[in-house]
Amino acid sequence: MNIAALVSGGVDSSVVVYQLKEMGITPTIFYIMIGMDDSECPKEEDIEITSYIAKKYGCKMEVVNLQQEYFDRVVNYTIETVRKGLTPNPDVMCNKMIKFGAFNEKWGKDFDKIATGHYCTTTNIENKVWLSTAKDKIKDQTDFLAQISYSQLEKIMFPVGNLTKQEVRTIAEKEKMPSAFRKDSQGICFLGKINYNDFIKRYLGEKEGEIVELETGKILGKHKGFWFHTIGQRKGLGLSGGPWFVVRKDIPNNVLYVSQGYDPITQYGTEMDLGAFHFLTEDVWGDFGGEKEISLKIRHTPDFTLGWISKNEDIYHVRFEHKLQGVAQGQFGVIYDKENHLCYGSGTIV
């Protein structure tokens, strides 16, 4: 089998190569450059480690450049989503548009499968492939893949999906991989060392607005633009006497509403509507009536929330068993079966 392995220099993707070799497969290793320019994504060490892995396991390696595609498809999406006052998820779009999109269009199309270090698994049911959760529930990354297409899903392999993070590190240590004790990457890769707010400022600038207490209408301070803030945010407001939480935005008037308690509608939600719902494998509900019991996530977390979903034309309405903090428009609501093993897909919170 002809396999392309996406290796970033981190411990997970490095162990992917070991796992494939144990299966009798020698993959072609690809390191994808996606930083906005050469100075903004510290790649030298990553490429050095990836080259070491390729040499250690006798694999051909290519460094491929998708920086322009990343800017066009992911960075622009992030900027435009923030401009509208919504909360983007670049990691979700990177998987859909770059790792399994642009890469496959240019190089992956020549391979039978693409192997990655994502903590996910796949399950075959009646000759159909379903995205399913990883053995390590804390590291599970199915929510980051809930927007990929079925053709993309069919082509992916997740060699570390049936391992815990500790098991992955144990293999890396045993194999004397330089990434064995390397910390997991944090934040958005394309930013590199750039502060997120500095990045947003570069494209959207600053515009002073008022910070208002929701319950009293009292002006508490100023902010530099609603696009720097998201629902549920606590830090970075510069207000005394806290804690203060962002609970609502007035986009046309550039006003942030904050509260020391909570706004039951926007900060601690009991329900949400999902638009443009994307099913990974198939529409599991069709034109059903009434509610179906499910589990869900609205952010990257090991915890699932029990809920109920119903459909009204093109909108899926979800009720939660418990109140959830920070139900932010623009983010993805990810839906699973009630046992939270199979990921059905996701929609945008509207």
Layout of SSEs?
Elements: E1 3-6, H1 11-22, E2 28-33, H2 44-56, E3 61-65, H3 67-83, H4 90-106, E4 113-115, E5 121-125, E6 128-132, H5 150-155, E7 156-157, H6 165-174, H7 196-204, E8 209-213, E9 219-223, E10 245-250, E11 255-259, E12 268-279, E13 292-297, E14 305-312, E15 315-325, E16 332-336, E17 342-349
Parallel strand pairs: 1-2, 1-4, 2-3, 4-7, 8-11
Antiparallel strand pairs: 5-6, 6-17, 8-9, 10-11, 12-15, 12-17, 13-14, 13-16, 14-15, 16-17
CATH class of one domain: Alpha Beta
As residue ranges, the low-confidence spans are none
What is the mean pLDDT? Answer: 91
Question: Percent of residues in beta strands?
Answer: 25-35%
Strands in their spatial order, largest beta sheet: 12-15-14-13-16-17
> What proportion of the residues is helical, as a percent range?
10-25%
Q: Please identify the structural class as seen in this structure.
A: alpha/beta
What fold name stands as the CATH topology of one domain?
Rossmann fold
Could you characterize what this model shows?
With 350 residues, this protein is an alpha/beta fold. Among the domains are: 148 residues, HUPs (Rossmann fold, 3-Layer(aba) Sandwich), CATH 3.40.50; 54 residues, Adenine nucleotide alpha hydrolases-like domains (SH3 type barrels, Roll), CATH 2.30.30.280. It is 24% helix and 29% strand. It is built from 7 helices and 17 strands. The strands form 3 sheets. Strands 12-15-14-13-16-17 form a 6-stranded antiparallel beta barrel. A 5-stranded parallel β-sheet has the order 3-2-1-4-7, sandwiched between helices. A 4-stranded mixed β-sheet has the order 9-8-11-10, with no helix packed on it. Strand 16 and strand 17 form a beta hairpin. Helix 1 crosses helix 6 and helix 3 packs antiparallel against helix 4. The protein is globular and about 65 Å long. The model has no long low-confidence stretch (mean pLDDT 91).
